[in-house]
């Protein structure tokens, strides 16, 4: 992890796209013009005025050296000028609810829900973050059903934040990848970034995982069916991550039973889905929730749905609902009421040393 005194350019930062390690270089700074094309920033025109230079860099992009011969790609400059980046990938089938879960997470962060946990979050890149809010968060909060993530030939992160504890240390860039389930099941270059991801959020779809009779009507309406073989994207992703000869994946992981509002009357689910998120999660509380989720999934869904827990050295399990209710006629006419969507993210932060007061060595074991 970088020290507070370390200057930009003193270390190499891993590009999450091509896996090159690149050093910050002011000559590689670009901005988007009116035609949305990247053009050189030309930082020299700001002279030696530190305020103007810093402001220009905050909204600039850094071009990657790209030795992998991919098409040109760029990262927000603050990705290089702050603390050690943390990359988080959401994993699950196309109908698991990953996009809604991430939008609800970012929405909770935007309204200041991290403050009570001793964390502050600001956009990694203001314009990109505003676009994500407009296209995802605000639409969901207005009751719109979000479209599934489309397949792509190049995996870009959906949104990025700068997250810190408010002390003297530089905040850390946190970026979120939300790929389609079809892409996650591929093994080509589009999923190469998985080899360098720091943390995973595995999203379980209860409609596929849980053969509970009272879910049959929803399955029939949405044309889904149960599958005791689990989510294929889980296995594909876990097999793609290097283990360096060890039996387990040495990455932070959280398993989230999404759409838990569908099973909210189950005692184990009700206990956690109604619990407030205002209290800072302790290793003990996370173990208790993980125990309940594990037992519930193991009993009703089977071991295949617990593959991330079996394969990852450190993993927590959670119940959460991105919307608080079912969609109706392509939307949420009663509005959305996220439930426990921050808990998986806080668990990831704790395991990665980003949550103040948490013992990063105890969480997820």
TrEMBL record:
SUPFAM superfamilies the UniProt entry points to: P-loop containing nucleoside triphosphate hydrolases (SSF52540)
Domain Double-GTPase: 88-278
Database matches in InterPro entries: DO-GTPase2 (IPR045528), P-loop_NTPase (IPR027417)
A Pfam family this chain is assigned to: DO-GTPase2
Protein name as catalogued: Double-GTPase 2 domain-containing protein
């Amino acid at each position: 992890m970088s020290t507070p005194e370390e200057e930009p350019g003193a270390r190499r930062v891993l590009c999450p796209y091509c896996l090159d390690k690149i050093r910050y270089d002011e000559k590689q700074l670009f901005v988007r013009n009116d035609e949305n094309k990247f053009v050189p920033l030309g930082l020299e025109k700001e002279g030696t005025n530190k305020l103007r230079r810093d402001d220009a860099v905050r909204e600039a992009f850094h071009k990657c050296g790209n030795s992998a011969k991919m098409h040109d790609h760029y990262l927000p400059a603050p990705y290089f000028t702050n603390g050690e980046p943390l990359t988080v990938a959401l994993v699950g089938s196309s109908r698991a609810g990953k996009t809604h879960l991430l939008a609800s997470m970012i929405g909770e962060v935007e309204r200041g829900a991290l403050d009570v946990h001793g964390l502050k979050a600001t956009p990694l890149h203001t314009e990109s973050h505003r676009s994500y809010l407009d296209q995802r968060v605000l639409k969901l909060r207005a009751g719109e059903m979000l479209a599934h993530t489309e397949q792509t030939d190049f995996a870009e992160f959906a949104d990025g934040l700068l997250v810190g504890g408010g002390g003297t240390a530089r905040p850390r860039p946190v970026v979120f990848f939300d790929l389609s389930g079809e892409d996650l099941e591929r093994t080509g270059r589009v999923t190469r970034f998985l080899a360098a991801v720091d943390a995973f959020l595995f999203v379980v779809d209860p409609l596929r995982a849980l053969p509970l009779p009272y879910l049959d009507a929803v399955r029939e309406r949405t044309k889904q069916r149960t599958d005791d073989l689990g989510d294929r994207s889980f296995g594909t992703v876990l097999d793609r991550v290097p283990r360096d000869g060890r039996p387990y994946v040495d990455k932070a992981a959280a398993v989230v039973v999404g759409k838990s509002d569908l099973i909210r009357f189950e005692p184990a689910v009700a206990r956690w889905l109604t619990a407030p998120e205002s209290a800072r999660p302790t290793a003990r509380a996370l173990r208790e929730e993980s125990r309940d989720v594990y037992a519930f999934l193991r009993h009703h869904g089977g071991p295949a749905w617990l593959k991330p827990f079996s394969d990852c050295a450190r993993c927590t399990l959670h119940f959460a609902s991105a919307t608080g209710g079912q969609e109706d006629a392509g939307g949420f006419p009663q509005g959305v009421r996220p439930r426990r969507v921050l808990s998986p993210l806080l668990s990831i932060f704790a395991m990665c040393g980003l949550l103040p007061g948490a013992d990063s060595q105890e969480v997820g074991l």
